[in-house]
Amino acid sequence: MGIEMYIGSINKNKCRSDAVQKGRPREFDTELALDKALHVFWQRGYEGTSLTDLTEAMGISRPSLYAAFGNKEELFRLALDRYAKKGPGAIHGEALAEPTARKVVEHLLHSVAMSLTDPCNPSGCLAVQGALTCSQAADSIKRELCKRRSEGEDNLRKRFERAKSEGDLGPDSDPGALARYVITVTQGMSVQASGGATRSDLLTVVDMALKAWPA
Question: For FRET with 27, which of 5, 35, 120, 206 sits at 20 to 30 Å CA-CA?
Answer without folding.
Answer: 120
